[in-house]
Amino acid sequence: MPEWVGDGDGPRAWARAAAAPLARAGRELTGTLLGLCTAALTLVWVLAAAAALVCAPFLPSRARPRFRGAVTRWAVRLGDADLARLARWTGGGTVDPRPEAAPRVAYLLLRLPVALVCGYLAPTALLLVAVFVGGAALELFTGSGTNVPVLMPGARMHVSSINVGLLMGLLVLAATWLVVALASAVDRALARRLVGPSDEDLLHRRIDELTSTRSGIVRAVDEERRRIERDLHDGVQQRVVALAMLLGRAQRGHDPERAARLVRQAHTETRVLLDELREVAWRVYPTALDTLGLESALTEVAERSPLPVEVRADLSSPPPRELATAVYFVAREAITNAVKHAGAGAVIVHLDDADGALDLRVLDDGRGGADPAGGGLTGLARRVRALDGTLAVHSPRGGPTTVRAVLPLTTIRSPHAPGDR
């Protein structure tokens, strides 16, 4: 059985939770120091741009465009490098920049004062922290600590110099973290505002996305209709023809025993036909999804599978019907692929609705190498994208294969959810 590695509630999970703020502060500090490097390069670029303006009239006419182009390309590369720094070290996410160079130039120039000030303060503060904490540690090790008088209104007290050093180090470290966090927030805000797509660009992208997903849904529906037609033609229709032939032979015959035998065969064929009709209807849309809910419908899929399938669902409330339907068909197709193509021995279906999204992960221990663009997942990917979701397939050679669908719960606000009647 494949193992699903979760966060858990043990000591390691607690240690990771405690270390997370320190790791985040370390990443932001590293990003700030790297930002000082890009700020220094920005200063060099400003000098080069000024030189270009001064020298341009004296250059040959053919060289001027190349000179200006080199300065512009430098600005674009600097801007892209700093955007990559934000995404990698400050948790700002990936900004999809506009193609023009002017937004990057504005971003680099506006962040320059903040970067220089923060780039000066952060190393200085770290040096002070090292002095305070190092001095306290040295006094503690050598036993040379002294009492420092502290005067307060109406009180006079003596505090160990070791404690004073540690306290000052912690205060400077906290102030440094606040300055670094503020500088990172300013950089992220400037990047989103100046370099990111405008509201008009986002609107055009949304229109293009809706147009694409609408046509994708039409193609997915057509593919599903063709699949149903094949199921009916290759299975049900053949059974109906065989049933009609058996009944016709029984009706035309004159031997009662032979007619009775043909009727019994027709009855058996009828039962098989009903089973196939139920199977086709179940593949089109399972009634359990409406009557019992998503978790029960997935459990039914697991029970029908020839492989051991474990369903782990952690839902705070029933999801909207449209999202539940999309997740159900993705899970069923992933299980079917694991049975038919992956050579898997077991499958795990994990479902939760944390972080405001319906998150489905299907893991199998098969041979891997699945093609995300092939099979029935293509049409399902269109359905997921139409709901503003994402469908990803990770299937390295040798396995395991993970199919993940994430659909935001804010996309659909349905008054009725499956299993909520």
UniProtKB/TrEMBL annotation:
List its EC numbers.
2.7.13.3
Q: In the UniProt record, does the keyword Endoplasmic reticulum occur?
A: no
What catalytic activity is recorded? ATP + protein L-histidine = ADP + protein N-phospho-L-histidine
Assigned keywords, A-Z? ATP-binding, Kinase, Membrane, Nucleotide-binding, Phosphoprotein, Transferase, Transmembrane, Transmembrane helix, Two-component regulatory system
One cellular component term (GO) for this entry is: membrane
- The enzyme's main class, written as a single word, is transferase
- Classification via SMART domains: HATPase_c
Q: Which is one GO molecular function term here? A: phosphorelay sensor kinase activity
**Regions that span the bilayer:** 33-59, 114-138, 158-183
Give residue ranges for domain Histidine kinase/HSP90-like ATPase.
Answer: 322-411
Give the residues annotated as coiled coil: none
Q: Which PANTHER family match?
A: NITRATE/NITRITE SENSOR PROTEIN NARX-RELATED, NITRATE_NITRITE SENSOR PROTEIN NARQ
Q: What is this protein called?
A: histidine kinase
Q: Please name the source species.
A: Nocardiopsis alborubida
